[in-house]
Specification:
- This protein has 379 residues and is an alpha/beta fold.
- The chain folds into three domains: 4-66, Arc Repressor Mutant, subunit A, CATH 1.10.10; 71-181 and 354-365, ATPase, nucleotide binding domain (Nucleotidyltransferase, domain 5, 2-Layer Sandwich), CATH 3.30.420.40; 191-348, 2-Layer Sandwich (Nucleotidyltransferase, domain 5).
- 42% of the residues lie in helices and 19% in strands.
- It has 14 helices and twelve strands.
- The chain has helices spanning 4-12, 19-26, 30-42, 107-122, 161-169, 178-189, 248-252, 254-263, 271-279, 283-307, 321-334, 337-340, 352-365, 368-378, and strands spanning 46-51, 61-65, 71-77, 81-87, 93-100, 129-136, 173-177, 196-202, 206-212, 215-217, 311-315, 344-347.
- The strands form three sheets. It has a five-stranded mixed sheet with strand order 5-4-3-6-7, with helices on both faces.
- The longest helix is centred in the last third of the chain and has 25 residues, at 283-307.
- 45% of the residues are buried.
C-alpha cells in the first residue's frame, strides 16, 4: 500500500499534484489518502497551493512539496578553489561563498573554511538544516562520507568528512565525487529526459560521472567513470599522481598542461591557470588544449560506444571552445556512427556540482522510507 512517504515523492517529483491524481496513482481510499496527506502537512512537508482551472465540477487544489521549511548546505571542493551555498529544498540559492582553497592542505583546514562559510550564511537563513552535501575531487565509497585513496587529495584518505561536519551542523552529511554530482546536477537542470548522460570534468585532473536511467551510476565501490586513469600506451613516461605512468590525466589534464606551459617559460599552476592563458589568447596554451582535447576524445570514443549516451557534457576548467571542438573532432570520427548519431556534446554549466550536491541530499532526506520513519517517530 502506498505510504505517506511515497505520496510525498509523487508530489515532489511532479508525477501527481492533486488529490485526485494521487488517488489514481496510489489506489488509496479517499479517507486513507486524506489521513496520510494530513500527516505530511502537519509535519510541514506538504502544502496546498492555488486551485487548478476547472473543467467542470469542483476545482482541484494543487499540492506542493514545501521547499522552504528547511535548508540544505552544499559545498564544492576543488584542487585550488572552494564554493559553498545555502539553498532551499528546490535548490534555489539563498546565499553563496567562494574563494581560494587548496585541497592539498588537508581535510581539517579545508573543512574548517567550508564550515566558516556555512556558519556565516546560516546566520541569516532562519531555517533548520536538513542535510549537508559535499563534492570532492576524488573517489568516494558509496554510502560512506569518506574519500578512498584519492590521487590528488593528500591526507584525505579515509577521513570522516561526514562525522566532522555532521557534529557541527547536527544534520546528515553526504559526500560524493565531483564528476558524479556535476552529472546529477546537469541531468536535473538541463537534461532531465536523457536516459544516459555522461559528464567529463577536465580540470587539474580528469574524471567522468554517469547518470543512467535518472540515477548516478557509481559502480560497486565508487570507481565508475574514473577515465583519468585509463592508460595511453604512447605516453609511457608521463607519471601520474596515482603512481602509474601514461594515465590520461597525466597527459591531458590541466595539471599536465600547466607543467608544460611552465617548461615553455609560461609559469602556470593549475587547470584554472591554463584556462586563463587560453582566454588571454596565448598560442601555446591554445595549442596544448587542442591536443589534449583530441586525446580525451580518443578515450571518450570507447566510453560512448559502451554506454551509448544521449549527451556528453564537458565541464571543468578546460571546458572551453578550443578543447571541446577537439574532443568533438576525434569522438565523432573514432566512435561508431550508430553510437554518435543521436549524441550531443555540450559545454557544461557553472555551479552544477553544487546543484548536484543539493539534489543528492534532498533525494536521501526525503526518500519515502526516510520520510515514513520520521513520521512514525512523531506519532
Amino acid at each position: 500500500m502506498t505510504s505517506a512517504g511515497e505520496l510525498l515523492r509523487l508530489v515532489r517529483t511532479g508525477e501527481a499534484n492533486t488529490r485526485k491524481a494521487l488517488r489514481e496513482r496510489s489506489g488509496l481510499s479517499r479517507s486513507t489518502l486524506t489521513a496520510r496527506l494530513e500527516q505530511l502537512q502537519t509535519a510541514g512537508l506538504l502544502a496546498e497551493g492555488v486551485q487548478e482551472d476547472s473543467t467542470g465540477g469542483r476545482p482541484a487544489r494543487q499540492l506542493r512539496f514545501d521547499d522552504r521549511h528547511a535548508v540544505v548546505l552544499a559545498a564544492s571542493i576543488d584542487t585550488m578553489h572552494g564554493e559553498a551555498a545555502v539553498t532551499d529544498l528546490s535548490g534555489r540559492v539563498l546565499d553563496r561563498r567562494a574563494g581560494a582553497l587548496r585541497v592539498a592542505d588537508g581535510p581539517e583546514p579545508v573543512l574548517g573554511r567550508i564550515a566558516e562559510w556555512f556558519d556565516a550564511m546560516l546566520a541569516g537563513a532562519g531555517r533548520p538544516v536538513c542535510g549537508v552535501g559535499v563534492s570532492v575531487p576524488g573517489p568516494v565509497e558509496p554510502g560512506r562520507g569518506r574519500v578512498t585513496r584519492p590521487p590528488i587529495m593528500p591526507g584525505w584518505d579515509g577521513y570522516p568528512i561526514d562525522t566532522h561536519l555532521g557534529a557541527r551542523f547536527s544534520a546528515p552529511v553526504l559526500v560524493d565525487n565531483d564528476a558524479n554530482l556535476m552529472a546529477l546536477g546537469e541531468h536535473r537542470a538541463r537534461y532531465p529526459d536523457s536516459a544516459a548522460l555522461v559528464v567529463v570534468k577536465v580540470s587539474t585532473g580528469i574524471g567522468a560521472g554517469l547518470v543512467l536511467g535518472g540515477e548516478v551510476y557509481r559502480g560497486i565501490d565508487g570507481g565508475a567513470g574514473d577515465i583519468g586513469h585509463i592508460r595511453l600506451p604512447e605516453h609511457p613516461d608521463a607519471r601520474c599522481l596515482c603512481g602509474s605512468h601514461g594515465c590520461l590525466a597525466a597527459v591531458a589534464g590541466g595539471g599536465a598542461l600547466a607543467a608544460r606551459l611552465t617548461e615553455l617559460g609560461l609559469p602556470t599552476v593549475s587547470g584554472s591557470g591554463v584556462r586563463d592563458r587560453i582566454t588571454a589568447g596565448e598560442p601555446a596554451a591554445i595549442r596544448l588544449a587542442e591536443v589534449a582535447g583530441r586525446q580525451v576524445g580518443e578515450v571518450l570514443a570507447t566510453l560512448v560506444c559502451v554506454v551509448n549516451p544521449g549527451v556528453v557534457v564537458i565541464a571543468g576548467d578546460l571546458a572551453e571552445p578550443h578543447f571541446v571542438a577537439s574532443v568533438r573532432e576525434v569522438l565523432y570520427r573514432r566512435a561508431l556512427p550508430r553510437a554518435t548519431q543521436n549524441l550531443r556534446v555540450e559545454i557544461g554549466g557553472r555551479g552544477e556540482g553544487l546543484a548536484g550536491a543539493v539534489a543528492m541530499v534532498v533525494d536521501a532526506v526525503f526518500a519515502p522510507a526516510e520520510v515514513d520513519r520520521r513520521l512514525a517517530a512523531r506519532a
